[in-house]
Design goal:
By secondary structure, the chain is α+β, with helices and mostly antiparallel strands. It has 3 domains: 1-30, no CATH class; 32-222, no CATH class; 241-390, 2-Layer Sandwich (Alpha-Beta Plaits), CATH 3.30.70.270. The protein is 64% helix and 9% strand. The chain contains 12 helices and 7 strands. It has a 5-stranded mixed sheet. Helix 2 (39-67) packs antiparallel against helix 3 (73-95), helix 4 runs antiparallel to helix 5 (130-143) and helix 4 runs parallel beside helix 6 (150-174).
Length: 391
C-alpha cells in the first residue's frame, strides 16, 4: 500500500513511497559516515577509524608474510574475515549510538580486547612472526593511554597474557615441533613484566591527564569568575562604571547604524546618607541589595544597568524614547516606594529620584549623562521621590 502523504524529494524528483521505504530513504539521504550533530560521537568514530587503519597496516604485513611463505593463504583469509567482522560490528554499534548506553561510550576496553584476540589468532597461524606480533601488545596498550585507569590496564594485560598462554598450550598440543616450551615460558614471563610495567606507566599518564583536565576546568571556572568580578559590582551585581561606559559606547554605535533612539535613567536613592548614619553601613548595603533586586525585576532583557556611584545607578533603555522611558521610570519609582525594607523598621520607606534623558545623535555621551544628572538634580530639589525629564 502506498501512503500518499509520504513522498521524498531528491534532486528535484518527488516520489511517493511506502512507509518502510520512506523511512529507509530518509536514513539513506541523511546518512553520513561520521555524525555531524554530535562532536563526541564524531571524535569516537575518528578514533575508531585510526584503529581500523592500524588493522589494515598489520594485514599488509601478514600479506608480505604470506608472500614470504611464513603464513598460508587460508590463515590470511581467516585474519581478514575476523578483522572485517570486528570492525563492521563496532562501526554499527558506534553509528547506531548503542555505545552511548554503555559505561564507556568509547568502547576502549572492548576494542583492545578484540585486538588482542586478533593477535592471538595471528600468533597461532603466524608463529614465525612472533617477535613482531608480541610487539603488537604494546601498541594495543598504547591505544588506552589517556583513557584507562591502572586497574583497567592490568586487566587488559592479564587478558593478553591469558591469550598468549592459550596459544602456547595449543601449539604444544597440535604443533609441538614448532615451539620450545622453555623458551615460550621465558618469553611469556618477560612479556608479563613488560605489559605490567607499561600498564602502570599508562595508568599514571592517564591519571595525570585527568588531573590536568580537572585543573583546566577549575582554571576556566576561576577565569569566568574573575571576568564577572571585573565587570560587575560585587554588592549589587550590576555592571561597574567602566564596563557600563563600554556598553553605552556599543549602544551608541548601534544607534548610529540603525537610527534607533535610546534613553538614560539616572537613579539615586533618596537620603541614603541618613540611612548609613542612622542604621550603619551594613544596613546601607542591605538597602542597596534590596533596591537592586527591585530594579532588576522591572528591567527588560534588552536594558542594562550599572552602578554609577555610591547610591547612583544608570539604566540604559534600549530602543526607548523619552515618553516610553518616563513610563518605565515611574514604574521603578512606584515599585521601590511600595517595597519593604525590614531592617529599617516597619514604617520606614525607601524612595528614589530619577533623571531621564534621550541620547541625541552624534552627541558626546558625557553630555548625555550630564543632562540626565541635571534632571536628577531637579528631582531632588523638587521634593524627591519623583521623575524629571531633560529633553
Amino acid at each position: 500500500m502506498v501512503h500518499k502523504s509520504l513522498s521524498l524529494n531528491i534532486n528535484g524528483i518527488k516520489k511517493k513511497l511506502s512507509k518502510p521505504a520512506f523511512n529507509l530513504s530518509v536514513m539513506a539521504v541523511n546518512f553520513s559516515v561520521i555524525p555531524r550533530d554530535d562532536p563526541q560521537q564524531a571524535f569516537r568514530l575518528r578514533r575508531f577509524f585510526v584503529a581500523f587503519a592500524i588493522y589494515i597496516f598489520n594485514i599488509s604485513i601478514s600479506y608480505f608474510a604470506y608472500l614470504a611463505g611464513i603464513v598460508d593463504l587460508r590463515a590470511l583469509y581467516g585474519l581478514g574475515i575476523i578483522v572485517l567482522t570486528i570492525n563492521v560490528v563496532l562501526f554499527i554499534v558506534f553509528r547506531s549510538d548503542l555505545n552511548l548506553r554503555m559505561s564507556d561510550p568509547s568502547l576502549t576496553t572492548i576494542q583492545m580486547c578484540a585486538a588482542i584476540l586478533v593477535v592471538m589468532y595471528a600468533l597461532y597461524y603466524g608463529y614465525k612472526m612472533q617477535s613482531i606480533l608480541l610487539s603488537m601488545y604494546i601498541l594495543i596498550l598504547l591505544f588506552g593511554t589517556f583513557r584507562l585507569y591502572t586497574s583497567q590496564f592490568l586487566f587488559i594485560s592479564g587478558f593478553a597474557l591469558l591469550t598468549y598462554g592459550i596459544d602456547i598450550v595449543l601449539l604444544k598440543i597440535f604443533r609441538p615441533l614448532d615451539i620450545d616450551l622453555k623458551i615460550e615460558l621465558f618469553q611469556w614471563f618477560g612479556l608479563a613484566v613488560i605489559l605490567i610495567s607499561v600498564s602502570f606507566i599508562g595508568g599514571k599518564i592517564s591519571s595525570l591527564r585527568r588531573e590536568l583536565s580537572v585543573s583546566r576546568r577549575k582554571l576556566q571556572s576561576s577565569l569566568s569568575v574573575i571576568r564577572e568580578m571585573a565587570i560587575h559590582d560585587d554588592l549589587t551585581g550590576f555592571f561597574n562604571r567602566t564596563h557600563l561606559m563600554d556598553l553605552i559606547e556599543t549602544e551608541i554605535n548601534r544607534s548610529i547604524r540603525t537610527g534607533d533612539v535610546f534613553s538614560l535613567a539616572m537613579i539615586d536613592i533618596d537620603k541614603f546618607k541618613n540611612i548609613n548614619d542612622t542604621y550603619g553601613h551594613q544596613t546601607g548595603d542591605y538597602v542597596l541589595k534590596t533596591f537592586a533586586s527591585v530594579l532588576r525585576s522591572v528591567l527588560r532583557k534588552t536594558d542594562f544597568c550599572g552602578r554609577y556611584g555610591g547610591e547612583e545607578f544608570l539604566v540604559v533603555l534600549t530602543q526607548t524614547d523619552l515618553q516610553a522611558a518616563q513610563i518605565f521610570a515611574e514604574r521603578i519609582r512606584d515599585c521601590v516606594e511600595k517595597s519593604l525594607f525590614p531592617s529599617l523598621g516597619p514604617d520606614s520607606k525607601v524612595t528614589v529620584s530619577i533623571g531621564l534623558t534621550a541620547y541625541k545623535m552624534q552627541e558626546n555621551i558625557e553630555r548625555t549623562i550630564a543632562r540626565a544628572d541635571e534632571a536628577l538634580y531637579r528631582a531632588k530639589n523638587g521634593g524627591r521621590n519623583r521623575v524629571e525629564v531633560s529633553a
